[in-house]
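Structure in, sequence out. Go:
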């Protein structure tokens, strides 16, 4: 208990204080309140071991902000050490500076714009293919998927993305996110036990109390190598052959399934049909080619499995609302 204006208040109840500094599970523990959070090493090892299965040429630890936040700086160091044990080149990046006027919750929740979007594009463009990114939370992982799609990167074939938190955003969008869920219930029980002990006069608790991280929840964004079910195999086949006269029937035959069964499994797992996935991959490859000023619209049409340029243009406009040339002028 602490005394304030003659009243006794529980130690964990503060008002008018910076939540980043006085939080039972926040990024900074100053000694007033124990920080109950993941065991950093087990969390990082789980993330890196999982992404290493995707056989990336490089690994990136990405945060909205890292510098000046001790827990994130610790994870950055552990991430680079874990990647080295796998023999995979690794680096860490951050989208904002802590003192940046653009760094706030609202700007992180929305699609990135301005310098933040430019910075993320630069990071993604610099990566060899395939690469893998572990993001500080699912919100950032969703931003990565959005920008990767703009750049024509295929997830997970060009870029595997792993989040943290199992937030609602991990289950939305074109690619559901593989993520490490937060151990909210375990952390909550530990916090209550610490509170009870402290209110009873026990002062023996350290500033930081670790909780072992749970296993990865595997979804689309790292599915290619890890999951061998029919939907995963179909996704890999579509990613590799969408522009090679591929049809839903051919995919189903390759998997010894009926088109109807494949359709139902696709919709159940990823929320769209095999035909929609083929069109999505074709569109991503078309957009990637359009960013190359040396390629003509006619040659791009051929690369995307269209024998006639007008059929390609009709497909592209139907999917984006813009002609290929108009899209190129607005995005390159």
């Amino acid at each position: 208990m602490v005394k304030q204006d003659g009243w006794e208040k529980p130690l964990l109840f503060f008002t008018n204080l910076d939540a980043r500094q006085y939080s039972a599970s926040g990024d900074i523990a100053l000694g007033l309140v124990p920080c109950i959070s993941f065991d950093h090493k087990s969390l990082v090892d789980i993330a890196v071991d999982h992404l290493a299965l995707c056989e990336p040429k490089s690994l990136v630890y990405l945060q909205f902000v890292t510098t000046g936040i001790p827990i994130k700086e610790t994870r950055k160091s552990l991430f680079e050490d874990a990647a080295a044990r796998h023999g995979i080149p690794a680096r860490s990046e951050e989208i904002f500076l802590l003192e940046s006027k653009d760094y706030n919750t609202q700007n992180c929740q929305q699609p990135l714009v301005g310098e933040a979007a430019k910075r993320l594009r630069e990071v993604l463009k610099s990566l060899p293919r395939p690469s893998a990114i572990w993001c500080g939370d699912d919100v950032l992982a969703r931003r990565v998927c959005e920008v990767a799609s703009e750049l024509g990167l295929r997830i997970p074939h060009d870029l595997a993305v792993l989040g943290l938190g199992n937030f609602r955003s991990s289950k939305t969008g074109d690619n559901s996110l593989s993520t490490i869920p937060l151990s909210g219930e375990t952390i909550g029980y530990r916090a209550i036990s610490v509170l009870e002990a402290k209110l009873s006069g026990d002062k023996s608790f350290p500033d930081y109390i670790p909780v072992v991280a749970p296993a990865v929840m595997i979804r689309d964004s790292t599915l290619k190598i890890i999951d061998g079910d029919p939907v995963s195999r179909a996704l890999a086949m579509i990613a590799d052959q969408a522009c090679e006269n591929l049809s839903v029937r051919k995919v189903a035959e390759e998997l010894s399934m009926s088109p109807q069964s494949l359709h139902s499994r696709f919709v159940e797992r990823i929320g769209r049909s095999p035909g929609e996935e083929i069109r999505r991959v074709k569109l991503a490859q078309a957009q990637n080619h359009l960013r190359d000023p040396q390629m003509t619209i006619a040659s791009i049409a051929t690369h995307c499995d269209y024998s006639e340029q007008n059929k390609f243009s009709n497909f592209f406009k139907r999917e984006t609302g813009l002609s290929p040339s108009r899209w190129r002028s607005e995005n390159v």
